[in-house]
Amino acid sequence: MAKKLWGGRFSKPTDPLVEKFTRSIQYDYKLALYDVLGSMLHVEILRECGDKYLTKPEYSSLMKALDSIYEKVKANKFKFDDTCEDVHTCIQNELYKKVGDLALKLHTARSRNDQVVFATKMYSQTVLLKLAYEISGLRLELAALSKNNSEIIIPGFTHLQHAQPVYLKDYLQAYIDMLIRDAERLVFIEKNMKITMGAGALAGTPVDAAKYNRKTSEILKDKSEFLARLNLCATSNSLDTVSDRDFVIEIISALAMLAMHLSRLAEDLILWSTKEFDFVELDDAFCTGSSLMPQKKNPDVLELVRGYAGRLNGNLVSVLTMMKGLPLTYNRDMQLDKEPLFNSFEIVSAELEVLAGLVKTLKFKKNSIAAHLKDESLYATDLVYYLVDKKVPFKQAHTIVGKLVLYSLAHGIEIKEMPENILHEFSEAFVKKEIVKLFDPLVSVRSKKSISRKK
Known about the structure:
The protein is mainly α. The protein folds into three domains: 16-108, Fumarase C, Chain B, domain 1 (Orthogonal Bundle), CATH 1.10.275; 114-201 and 228-366, Fumarase C, Chain A, domain 2 (Up-down Bundle); 374-446, Fumarase/aspartase (C-terminal domain) (Ribonucleotide Reductase Protein R1, domain 1, Orthogonal Bundle), CATH 1.10.40. The chain has 18 helices and six strands. The chain has helices spanning 16-22, 25-28, 32-48, 56-74, 87-99, 112-148, 168-191, 209-219, 238-243, 246-272, 300-323, 338-360, 366-372, 380-389, 394-411, 420-426, 432-435, 441-446; strands at 153-158, 161-167, 195-197, 232-234, 280-281, 363-364. The strands form three sheets. It has a two-stranded antiparallel sheet with strand order 1-2. Strand 3 (195-197), helix 8 (209-219) and strand 4 form a beta-alpha-beta unit. The longest helix has 37 residues, at 112-148. The chain starts with 15 loop residues before the first helix and ends in a 9-residue tail after the last helix.
C-alpha cells in the first residue's frame, strides 16, 4: 500500500473499499507536471526563509530530486503508482525514494488544498492557450473554404424554411465570428486566472509566500515556457483560495459554449449533405458506412460533435451542482471537478482537430444549390422592398406580396410568369419587366447594404 500524506491520528489502516472509492490518481495524474513545478517553487520559498525550514544542502538535494522527477514526467517516462491516493501523494512518494526522510520537509507550510488549486490552475492555463491555438486552426480552414467559394450564393433559412439568398461566405463567417468570441473568452479566462501560493489548508501559513513568489518564479522560469510568463500573486483570502472552483466552472462554461457552436456547424453540414439539401459533399475519409446497407455514407463525425455538446453541458451542470451546497472551505466533493474539466478539454480539442480536417475537404455542389435558388419564395422580401421603393407603405407591401405568393401557390404559376394584368390585380405598382430581374440571387444579395463584410 502506498504511503499517505497523513495518518498519525488514525488507529487502524484505511479500509480497502475506502482506498478504492476515494482514489483520484486514475485521472489527476494529468496534473503531475504542474504539481512538481509547484513543489519546486515551494522549495524555493522555503529556502528564502533561511535555514529555518531548509538548509542549503537540503535545498540542493530536494531541487535535484524534483528536477529529475520533472524531466521524467515531461518525457512521459514517469511511472505512476495507481495504488496512491492521488498524484500529489505519488510525487511525494517518488521524492521519498530519492532523498529519504528529507522529502518529509517538502510539506512544510503547505496543504494539498492549496497544492491542488495551484496545479489545476496552472494545467488549465496551459490547455486554454493550446485550445485558443487549435480554434485558430479551424478558423483558418473555414476562412479558406469561404475564400475558395466566395461567389457561391445559397438559400438562407429561418425556422429551417427558405428565407432569403445569402452569400456562402457570410454564412461561414458567422461561424468564424463565433469561434473568435470563443477564443477571446478562453484567453480572457487564462489571463485573469490568479495563481497563488501560501493559502495552506485554509488559514494561511507562517511563511510569507507573497514576499518570495515573484523572485522564485524568475528563478524557475527556464523550467518551462509557461513558467516564463507565470505571475504568482499573494492570496488575498486563503479561505476563498482553497474553496474556489469558479475558474473550473467558468472554463467548462466557455467550453460548453464552444461545443455548442461546433454542434451547430455540424448540424448545418449534416443537413447540407442530405439528398434533400444536397449542398455539400463530405469527403469519404470523414464518413462511415452501414453494416447492413451498402449504399450508406454516414456523417458520424459530425453527429458525434453534435452529441458531445450534451456531454459538455452535463459536465457544467455536474460541477455547478456539486459546488452549490458546499460550506467553506475545502470539502472532498471538490475532487470531482477534475474529471469534468479534463473531459471537457479533451473533447473540445479532439473536435477542433477533426473538424479542421473535415472542413478542409468539403466540396460544394453548385448545380444543386442553383436548383434551390430557383424557389421564388426566396425573393418575396425583395418584392416587398420593390413596392416600398414605389412609395407603397411597408405593411401594405408586405400584405400584397403575401397574397401574391398565395395566388402563385394556389394556381401553380410562378410570379415571374404571370401576365402584367394579373400582377396589377395585386398592385398597380408592379411592372413585370422590372420584377423579373428581382428573381436573381446575385441581385438579391447585392441589394443588402447593411452588412459590413470582412475582407
